[in-house]
């Protein structure tokens, strides 16, 4: 799938800008605790984009924030068993 202009613009921001954008404008959809790894995944909806935030469970640091528009990726998070 081709990346949209909104997606490219969001992903080109630095981590601090993305974080501020997510927390100021984002709507939290769900979070997943990956029991097999040391990660939490949170998915937000922001300005016609989905944003995936991956946290390290051990130290609470944000590893990455990336936006996506692909509904298949969203369905993966909803269907996958992370326990």
Helices, strands, pairings?
Layout (H helix, E strand, L loop, with lengths): L4 H7 L3 H11 L1 E8 L4 E8 L2 E8 L5 E7 L2 H9 L4
Antiparallel strand pairs: 1-2, 2-3, 3-4
Quaternary structure type: single chain
Beta-strand proportion: 35-45%
Q: In what order do the strands lie side by side in the largest sheet?
A: 1-2-3-4
Secondary structure class reads: alpha+beta
Shape: globular
Uncertain runs are none
Total strands: 4
- Number of helices, counting only DSSP H or I runs of 4 residues or more: 3
Q: What value does the Rg take, in angstroms?
A: 13 Å
What is the H-and-E element order? HHEEEEH
* C-alpha end-to-end distance: 29 Å
Average pLDDT rating: 87
In helices, the fraction of residues equals 25-40%
Largest sheet: 4 strands, antiparallel
